[in-house]
Amino acid sequence: MEYPFTQPSALEPPAEWARLRDECPVSRVRMASGDETVLLTRYEDVRTLLADPRFTHNLSRPDAARIADSESGGVFNEASLVTDMTSGEGHLRWRRMMSRSFTAKRVNALRPRIEEIAHELISAVQPPVDLVSALGFPLPVFVICELLGVPADHRDRFAHWSDAMLNLTKFKQDELDTAAREFHEFMAAHVLAKRDNPGDDLLSELATIVDAQDGRLTEVELIITAQGLLVAGHETTANMIGKMVAMLLADRSRWEALLADRGLIPSAVEEALRFDANPNIGIPRYVSEQYEVAGETLPAGTTVITNLASANRDGCVFADADEMVLDRRPNPHIAFGAGPHSCLGQALARVELQTVLGVLLDRLPGLRLDVEPAALRRREGLVVGGIEEVPVRW
Amino acid sequence: MEITVDEDACCGAGQCVMIAPEVFDQRDDDGVVILLDPAPPPELRPAVENAAAVCPAAAISVFP
Ligand code: HEM
After folding, report:
1. What is the pTM of this model?
2. Among the atoms of ligand 1, which is closest to the Cα of residue A91?
3. Residues near ligand 1 with C-beta < 6 Å?
4. A321 in reach of chain B (CB within 8 A)
5. pLDDT in tens, A142-191
6. Size of interface A-B (CB pairs under 8 A)
7. Which family is annotated (chain A) (predicted)?
8. Prediction ipTM score
9. Sign of torsion, CA A45 A9 A132 A254?
10. Measured between alpha carbons, how far is A148 from A313 in angstroms, rounded to an integer?
11. The predicted structure's pLDDT at residue A114
12. E strand or H helix that includes residue A306
């Protein structure tokens, strides 16, 4: 089977997910690279593997499957160079150091600023408009740039660099190499500038830690971290804004329920994350030791793809799994993964999504899709799935 | 109702603080969970159980 599967439409999951959950929870699929991987689709299996501290998404080992059809195999296949910050003790140290900037308290404090950015972006457009380019993409970039302390006027270049990192099919190897070099040089120059001119931002804070030279963080690790945050904090949230709004407008009674009760916003955001049928490939794991799952034994060296979105529609865990239930509680979806490697920026992503939704409901209560939901087109080739355009009017 | 948290497992997602701020907080320097109230009043049970259910690290245990 070729993977990812074809969807009936951008908002509906491929029929294979339900079939594999029922009949074949450990299946073999072929990636864009031609390499074969093992696909997991059930909630328990996906969650247990993701949370296993022995394994990571780093596929740089020579026997790992390549995901993309470029020579290097794409973002998951690149070696993590000189650092132990991606697994085990090194990862835990790195994670705890970064977590201070993404606590509930820190990201809640950003709400007023995020609201302001959303208002400015909405004020700048007239209907009809594509919500993805007007709001979805610019907002998370402004937010992550402010948090890092990087000027947002380089937005177009960031967009190109993260596309190059996350696109599985579009670029040739030399284009990928050039983008990687430029991005690294850009970040390195910014880190240097922070030393001369520190600000109240994450890069300045981290540069001080590097300068303490106590082994907590090296210069190269800082630059890789900054690049990672910019990319991780950008495409994922941007696409999710478009998908969330499309899902809520596709059946307008959902939008109306939110207009009637703003108290639904947090649980509606969680449900949109759970209901997302467009995560693209899911999250890989390089299983470096023999591993048992659903009664099968996978040999050491297997590359596994965990389909988080299929897991999130598993009827064993979620009642009415194929319905969007705006007040679902509890909602233990794993759109942000699970365990030690689960999304570092999830509190920030939640606050961004909740804030955007609140501002849209206040400013544009008459918001509606300007096309039939079935006509929405998915973005092709990305590690992070999304919808190409969400045309709206009000 | 009694609660315990596993600091070593905590991944700092902040969900518990968002859902039940009366019961949970996070350390400023590394985001690890702080249990403010190990035996919260019954009216907080729904929030506490929700926080435990959605914790991505399964680091919260609730005992009746
Ligand atoms: C809706 C938006 C987002 C989604 C759906 C999402 C999803 C994910 C998922 C599934 C993982 C787990 C990868 C794995 O297990 O290998 C992850 C990791 C990560 N995410 Fe997010 N993310 C989002 C937003 C963000 C934001 C806003 C940031 C930061 C500013 C961010 C930063 C990260 C980082 C640094 C990691 C790696 C964590 C680690 O390895 O410890 N993400 N994300």
Report:
1. 0.95
2. 41
3. A 50, 57, 95, 144, 228-229, 232-233, 236-237, 240, 283, 335-337, 341-345, 348-349
4. no
5. 999 889 998 888 877 887 888 777 776 777 888 888 888 898 899 899 88
6. 75
7. Belongs to the cytochrome P450 family.
8. 0.97
9. negative
10. 35
11. 97
12. strand A302-306
